[in-house]
Every structure is written in C-alpha cells, then in structure tokens.
Amino acid sequence: MVYQRTFWKLKCGIPKLKTNIPAFKLKYSSVRRRYSDFEWFRDVLERETSRVNIPALPGKVFTNRFSDEVIEARREGLERFLQNVAGHPLIQTGSKVLSAFIQDPNFSREVYNY
Q: Where does the PX domain start and stop, copy by copy (predicted)?
C-alpha cells in the first residue's frame, strides 16, 4: 500500500508544500497566509464538509506574540492543522477552496462566496 503524504517545510517564514496527493495540482508550492486567512479557511471547511470534524487552530496570542518561541509554536500549530485537513480524503474531494488556499499565491477570499 502506498501512502500519500503532504510535507511542510518552513523556508523564510513561508511554509513550503511538497505533496503526492492527487487533489493538488502542483507537487511543490509556497504561499503566504495571515492567521485571519486560516480562520476564514477553517470556517469555510466547516460549512463545506459537515461530516468531518475540522481541527482547531492554535489560539490567538495577545502577549509576547512576536517572540521567537511564540511564533514557532503558532507555526507548528498551523502546520499540524494543514497536515490534518490536507490529508483528509473527504476534505480533498469535497472542498472547493482547499487546493487554492494551499497552493495559489494569488488566493483571495473575495473569489469565494462564503
């Protein structure tokens, strides 16, 4: 059995995606997203895929939010979130925004009427 995986690497603060999952058009991609984009994305996934329990995002930080430790912890939490949703078969086949959010550097929320 061949397992399909998505790998994330942090390069200059931007997650770099390497995947062999057929749902994604590109084998390699790198995009920049704000935390608010992740909040929007998670909300859309919950509405698109009601049969899947979408994992929580790492919590917002209000103190020391620019310290290296806090930034790294948040990055790791967002990476886990992306690995979970990108690797879920029902989300891969049922989401209209998954591939664009993860792979399109020009992604815009306004394109999607949610």
A: 1-108
In a domain, 99, yes or no: yes
Q: What percent of the chain is predicted at pLDDT more than 90?
A: 21
Q: Name the amino acid, one letter, at 10.
A: L
Q: What is the spatial distance between Cα 44 and Cα 49, in angstroms, rounded to a whole number?
A: 9
65-114 pLDDT, tens per residue? 788 888 888 888 998 998 899 888 889 888 889 888 988 888 888 887 66
Rounded Cα distance, 85 and 60, in Å: 20
Are 83 and 8 within 8 A, CB to CB? Answer: yes
64 close to 73: Cβ distance less than 8 angstroms: no
**What CATH number corresponds to the domain at position 88?**
3.30.1520.10
Compute the distance between CA of residue 24 and CA of residue 26 in angstroms, rounded to an integer. Answer: 6
In a domain, 1, yes or no: no
